[in-house]
Design brief:
CATH class: Mainly Alpha
Strand order of the largest sheet: 1-2
CATH superfamily: BFD-like [2Fe-2S]-binding domain
Number of helices: 3
Bound molecules: FE2/S2 (inorganic) cluster
CATH topology: Arc Repressor Mutant, subunit A
Order of helices and strands: EEHHH
Strand content: 5-15%
CATH architecture: Orthogonal Bundle
Radius of gyration: 12 Å
Largest sheet: 2 strands, antiparallel
Structural class: mainly alpha
Length: about 90
């Protein structure tokens, strides 16, 4: 899977995948959902809110501390019409 870059930061948590859009990086540690799974769900299912990402992937259903990162992924990958980022 070829993920678009969503920022230029260096990966603080190196893994086997390509960084800056690292598909293998865990975004939601509670549910162990990766960046790749979330990005693919956003693009392929047309998700626009954290709530939709939660329903589709399970990410964010625990402590909720990953919601900020999920919002960033929505801003990077969601359809151009915008993101209802405040809804979780
Ligand atoms: S890290 Fe995602 S719900 Fe806790």
């Amino acid at each position: 899977m070829d993920l678009p870059r969503y920022d230029d930061r260096l990966c603080p948590d190196p893994c086997a995948g390509p960084c800056a859009g690292c598909a293998d990086r865990i975004v939601c540690r509670c549910l162990e959902v990766t960046e790749g799974v979330i990005a693919e769900a956003i693009t392929e299912l047309g998700l626009r809110t954290v709530k939709e990402v939660r329903r589709a992937t399970g990410a964010g259903d625990g402590c909720t501390c990953c919601h900020k990162h999920i919002r960033a992924l929505l801003e990077a990958h969601a359809p151009a019409a915008g993101v209802a980022a405040g809804i979780s």
